[in-house]
Amino acid sequence: MKTQIDYKFYPTKEVTIISAPFSAGQGKGGVEKGPGLLLKHGLREDLEALGWSVSIKEPLKGTGLDVPPSELEEEFDRSHGIAKRPTVVAQATERVYRAVKEVSHQKRLPLTIGGDHSIGVSTLAGFLDANPDACVLWIDAHADINTPETSPSGNIHGFPVALAMGLSREVWPKQFSWLDEAKNKLAADRIAYIGLRDLDPCEKKRVRELGIAAYSMYHVDKYGIAKVVEMALARINPTGKSPVHISYDVDALDPLFTPATGTPVRGGLTFREGMYIVEAVAETGNLGALDIVECNPDLASTDVHEIDTITAGCAIAKSAFGETLV
Ligand SMILES: NC(=[NH2+])NCCC[C@H](N)C(=O)O
Ligand SMILES: [Mn+2]
Ligand SMILES: [Mn+2]
After folding, report:
1. Does ligand 1 have an atom closer than 6 angstroms to the CB of 117?
2. Which atom of ligand 1 sits closest to the CA of residue 203?
3. Which atom of ligand 1 is nearest to the CA of 143?
4. The CATH number of domain 14-320, selected from 1.20.1260.10, 3.40.800.10, 3.40.50.740, 3.30.360.10
């Protein structure tokens, strides 16, 4: 058994935490407090204790974009279907994209902490810019592959995978034209989902038609989490040589473990299943990038719920950065 993880892409163990306190990709205030709380609960010190040198970037600082959605411009794009607050979401995601891109080119591991999952478009496009062969594990109850004409809610945190893949470009709100500059689109055979259990009908169709590797909770029950991770990595990283970007929505875990999140869905991953996924990727040495999103303390009904959710976020990071192997 291995006792030390060899991070192939980061031999000097340098990470930059990209703080993305942003919430207008959905309608519930509070998720913008996620980064501050993760840091308050010792995220940085946890990584340092694991031998990583840590720096922090705050691409939204001073922009006024780091406030609850109710304080941002209320705007609807109804040119094709619906997209809510496209101007501010496009501004924030572009800034986070530039930060992730810069960090990725510096060969430091980008750890992006949200904030809602709309910033997934930033992390995918930014990491792919420096790593064209990257592959993605999207850990989530949701597929986040809507576009305005398929979205039931208009919330852009349900769009990031579709945007990064360049799907239905003609229906995007015009504010997202910054994304045309991102040269590497995410290919359908380079992403796998784990933890799915709440897809909109059009999303199901899209995932099926594109042939995306999708492991729902049914597959986790049927095969066990270890086999699911193995199958997912075999699909997206057959040579085992590409960096793996994990985009982790904390609602993938069962609401018993991460109750303070905007779109909880029962029947999710256990705490250990959730940690196992990132541990297994870490053990391969292929961890490339990590996002931890959708912690919303304002939706906690007790202090314990808030602490459980935030410390679960910290635990995902620790597991990914090498804590578990003794
Ligand atoms: N990142 C998330 N929590 N996304 C939830 C999306 C829910 C739903 N599919 C929608 O598009 O509105
Ligand atoms: Mn989700
Ligand atoms: Mn999500």
Report:
1. yes
2. 9
3. 9
4. 3.40.800.10
Our answer on whether the CB atom of 144 is closer than 6 Å to any ligand 1 atom is: yes
Q: Which of 123, 144, 292 to mutate to test the pocket of ligand 1 (most atoms within 8 A of CB)?
A: 144
pLDDT over 90 at 181, yes or no: yes
ipTM for this prediction: 0.97
Tell me the per-residue pLDDT of 85-102, one tens digit each, with 9 for 90 and over. 999 999 999 999 999 999
Residue 47 CB neighbour total at 10 angstroms = 24
Report the SS3 class of residue 256.
Answer: coil
Q: Which of 313, 300, 291, 320 is nearest to 118 (CA)?
A: 291
pLDDT tens digits for 241-263?
Answer: 999 999 999 999 999 999 999 99
Instruction: Report domain extents, the chain.
Output: 14-320
pTM to 2 decimal places: 0.98
129 an active-site residue?
Answer: no
Tokens of 232: 């997912």
Q: Note whether 120 and 247 are within 8 A (CB).
A: yes
Q: What is the pLDDT of residues 140-166, one digit of tens each?
A: 999 999 999 999 999 999 999 999 999
- Please check whether residue 314 is in contact with residue 41, taking contact to mean a CB–CB distance below 8 angstroms: yes
pLDDT in tens, 17-72: 999 999 999 999 999 999 999 999 999 999 999 999 999 999 999 999 999 999 99
Both tokens of 170, joined, read 């003609």
Of the residues 32, 46, 102, 144, only one is catalytic, namely: 144
User: How far does residue 251's CA lie from ligand 3's centre (Å)?
Assistant: 7
* Distance from the alpha carbon of residue 267 to the mean position of ligand 3, in angstroms: 16
Report whether residue 101 contacts ligand 1, using a CB cutoff of 6 Å: no
Among left, alpha and beta (phi > 0; psi -120 to 50; other), residue 266 is beta
Among the listed residues 249, 254, 273, 323, the single catalytic one is: 249
